[in-house]
Amino acid sequence: MEKGLNTLLVGALMLVSFYTYAQPERMIGLWEVEKVAVGEENMTPVAKWFRINAEGTYQAGNGWLQNGNGFWNYDSSNHLYTASDPLDVADEFGGFNVSFDGAKMMWERAEEGMPVTVTLVPVEKLPMSPADYLEGIWDLVEITENETSILDDFDQENKHKLFIRWDRVYINFSSEGKRLTGYWHIHGHKPEITLLPHQEGKKPESWKIEVNEKELLMTGISDTNRKIQRKYVRRNKF
Questions:
Q1: What is the rounded distance in angstroms from the CA atom of residue 42 to the CA atom of residue 38?
Q2: With left for phi above 0 and alpha for psi between -120 and 50, is residue 214 left, alpha or beta?
Q3: pTM strictly above 0.70
């Protein structure tokens, strides 16, 4: 009886030790953030990812842009994952409690009294964000106002193109043939772009976007363009 009890106890301890060791092992790899829930709100960032390395380092980013790099630690007794980036602002909310649901990993903690749950899924390559698709030369093929085409009036000679550069500068080739420049900014949580003209007197405009390898659809969401929608196709030369 005593021998059997000792065997059972040793087995249980081995199982606990294996589980404790396996938790950080399961965390190693490339993860994309599937959802961030803050209380009842969905606060999921666009194409957010974390790469957790076995030697205790990590990288983080959005799409092809890396914006975090530092060290991570796992407290096995409390199942707590903490990360620190020496170049970033210190995280005042502490670590995340880690759990798994099948292949998914969940991080949970409280921030300013609100429960926060981050759901991550394993991926093999970096996710692409709208900003990654945006870069390139875009040729206008349709423009509507109040769902009515105004292409013939707006761009009779097919001169309008939009060149979106990697350095956050854009060049707007107007229908009159002018080169107008500015900065472009992508929203961190929504597929929205804001164009900030360099020209004096020109107002910034924001657009909701749908973009892929071949097409760009821009729907106005500012007061100056709210009823306008533009459709572009990608070109590889001017």
A1: 6
A2: alpha
A3: yes
